[in-house]
Amino acid sequence: MKIVRFTYGAQDKWGVLNEKNEKKINIINGNIFANYNNHNSYDNYNNYEVSDEYVSLDNVQLLAPCIPSKGVCIGLNYYDHAREMNLKLPAEPLMFLKPSSSLNHPGGIIEYPAISQNLHYEAEMAIVIKKQARHVSVENAYDYILGYTCANDVTARDLQQKDGQWTRGKSFDTFMPLGPYIETDIDPHNINITLYVNNVACQSSNTGNLIFKVPELLVFVTQVMTLYPGDVILTGTPAGVGPMQAGDTVAVELEGIGRLENTVSKADKRSCQPLL
C-alpha cells in the first residue's frame, strides 16, 4: 500500500491511497510506526487501522511521508555511478548524514544557497524505518522497514569539494526532499529510478545496480547508530548527477512508488542534455 502524510484543514494526518481510486486518501487512525513500551519491547505492529473515511487528493497539501530524526545517506552505491566517476568500488558503504532540518516536502522549494555556485540533484530510493533499530542482522533486516520512498540528495557540490568532507554541502535547509508516498509492498532491488530536470531525463537506472543491498545497509548503519521510527536511509544515486539552476523543476520518479517534484528558488530556467 501507499502511505501518505498530508495537511487537511488545520491538521496533519496519515492516510493510504485508495487502491481503486488513487485520487482518494483513506484516513489512518492510530500510529503507523511501532511504539516502544515501558517493558523494553515493542507493542504489536499494525497498531493502526485504515478507516472508510476519505478525502480527495486534490484537496490536501502533501507533506514528507515521515519525519526523520536524521537522514543516513550512502555515497557511491551504484555500479553505473562508480563507472561514470572512474572510481574504485568501495569495500564498505560510505556513510554521511543529513540533519532533520534539511527535510523538504513534495512540491516544496529547494533553496539555492547564496554561498554556493554549483547545486546538484541526486535521485535516490530511501528506506523508511518503522521501529527502533540497533545491531540489526541480515536475517531480520526487513522486520525494521516500513517501506520505501523517493528522495533527492540535494548537494552544494562546490562546498562539498571545498570542505573535503560532506556536512556543509549536504545539510542546508530544504536539501532532503522526500515523498510523495511510502510504498510498503515492493521489491527494493528492481525499481526503475529516473530524475527529470524540466521534464528532460537526466538520470535513469534501476535499483538492481545497488552495490550494497538494503539488508546490508541496515546492518552496516545500525552497528554504528540507532535508527528511530521515521528515520530514512538514502541508498545512493545512479549515474548522471549534474547541476540545477534557479527556476528549474526537478522530479525523482521511482517505478511503483511515485514522483517527487520540487522547484529550485530564484530565476533563469535551464534544461540538461537528454539521455542517449
Automatic annotation (TrEMBL):
GO process annotations (BP): carboxylic acid metabolic process
**Residue ranges constituting the Fumarylacetoacetase-like C-terminal domain according to the UniProt record:** 72-264
Q: Which GO terms describe its molecular function?
A: isomerase activity; metal ion binding; ureidoglycolate lyase activity
Keywords of the record, alphabetical order, are: Lyase, Metal-binding
A Pfam family that the UniProt record links to this protein: Rv2993c-like_N
Q: Which SUPFAM superfamilies match?
A: FAH (SSF56529)
Main EC class of this protein?
lyase
User: E.C. number, please?
Assistant: 4.3.2.3
Annotated Rv2993c-like N-terminal domain ranges read: 1-65
Family annotation (PANTHER family): FUMARYLACETOACETATE HYDROLASE DOMAIN-CONTAINING PROTEIN 2A (PTHR42796:SF4), FUMARYLACETOACETATE HYDROLASE DOMAIN-CONTAINING PROTEIN 2A-RELATED (PTHR42796)
Which protein family is named in the record?
A: Belongs to the FAH family.
Q: What is this protein called?
A: Ureidoglycolate lyase
**Natural source organism:** Methylomusa anaerophila
